[in-house]
Amino acid sequence: MEFQEVVHRRRMVRRFRPDPIPVEVVDRLLDNARRGPSAGYSQGQAFLVLEGADLERFWAVAGAAAGSGVRLAPLVVVPMSSKRVYLDRYAEPDKGWTERDETQWPVPFWHIDTGMAAMLLLLGVVDAGLGALYFGIVPEEVPPFRAAFGVPEDHDPIGAIAIGYSDEARQSGSPTHRPRRPWNELVHRGQWGRSSSPND
Question: In this model, does residue 173 exceed pLDDT 70?
Answer without folding.
Answer: no
